[in-house]
Amino acid sequence: MDLTAEGASIPLVHIGFGEVTGPPEPEAGPRHVVSRLVAGALPDRSDLLVPHDVVRDEAGRTTGCRALAVGASRRTAGEA
């Protein structure tokens, strides 16, 4: 299916993401750095961290991050 805007045809694609498979069982202590997609799919996991404040090179490629974040859904009132 395509959309048309100002005479231009723009492809409309449908994407979807499946279930997260094979994550390690939660346990006290270890934490895991995962993508935001994975963390979002497992909102009850407090052991999952995502890159935050991403650092990019001159070409816009991600080269690192300045911090790691716990998902916003797990943040409590008063936390930054």
Question: Quick summary of this structure?
Answer:
The chain has 80 residues and is mainly beta.
Please summarize the sheet with the most strands.
3 strands, mixed
pLDDT averaged residue by residue: 87
Distance between the termini: 42 Å
Radius of gyration computed on alpha carbons: 18 Å
Large-scale geometry? flat
Order of neighbouring strands in the sheet with most strands: 3-4-5
Helical element count?
1
- Helices and strands, in order, run as EEEHEE
How much strand? Answer: 35-45%
Q: How helix-rich are the residues, as a percent range?
A: under 10%
Unreliable spans are 74-80
**Computed structural class:** mainly beta
Q: What would the keywords be for this entry?
A:
flat; disordered C terminus; 1 helix; two-stranded antiparallel ribbon; 80 residues; mainly beta; 3-stranded mixed beta sheet
Structural commentary:
By secondary structure, the protein is mainly β. It has a domain at 30-80. 8% of the residues lie in helices and 35% in strands. It has 1 helix and 5 strands. It has one helix spanning 36-41, and strands spanning 2-5, 8-11, 32-33, 48-56, 62-70. The strands form 2 sheets. Strands 3-4-5 form a 3-stranded mixed β-sheet, with no helix packed on it. A hairpin with a 5-residue loop joins strand 4 and strand 5 (62-70). The longest helix has 6 residues, at 36-41. The termini are far apart. The relative contact order is 0.15.
